[in-house]
Amino acid sequence: MSGVDVEASFTWLGDSALVVGTPHARALLDELRARPLPGVQEVVPALHLLTLLFDPLQSDGATLEAGVRARLLALRQPDPADGAARTLVVPVRFGGPGGPDLGWCAARAGLDAAAFVQALCRTPLEVAFLGFTPGFAFLTGLPPELRMPRLDAPRERVPAGSVALGGPWAGVYPRGTPGGWRIVGVTDLNLFDLSRPEPVPWRAGDRVRLEAVAGRPGQGRP
């Protein structure tokens, strides 16, 4: 099994954190979750970056960096058809009061609203990383024709559950916050709940599919 290109950058944050920059961050994350390196307590993903938090009493910097390089050398590229990744289906009510920007986005893409929704729902998305606010996932995979520019001026408040497009990303606002993305629909999924064993339902590497549904706001919310 051939490995991937091992080119990577390594940046130290004090004596207990190592930032690894690599285009193969997703595959490396899966590898480190499956077979943790000694002393590593947590791996935090970002776009093309992984931050390894480790116990300096259990591993030294040189050993950890060598371990990461070895894993990269042995790494295989993830197979898009691999069934190991989790898939989350997000039911969305597109348009209407909960999706005020749907018509604008459809027109920009040269489609009517129904065709635009169908295109979004056919697009396989993936959680690249989480950030901005607890439970907010940056979803990658939008083709160029479905990518939308952010608003010139952010809204003061975007309602919880809003499904939105911003640049190359899609996302769902877990709670009411300011936001500058184009809102195309709303979901009743609760994306941040501290009473659950896993407060956030998704993590980096998970696959996501949007599904158009009918219904009134508030129906089916966990």
UniProtKB/TrEMBL annotation:
Keyword Repeat in annotation: no
Classification via InterPro entries: CT_C_D, Cyclophilin-like_dom_sf, PxpB
Domain Carboxyltransferase, first and last residues per copy: 8-202
Keyword field: ATP-binding, Hydrolase, Nucleotide-binding
Superkingdom field: Bacteria
Pfam families documented for this protein: CT_C_D
Stated name of the protein: Carboxyltransferase domain-containing protein
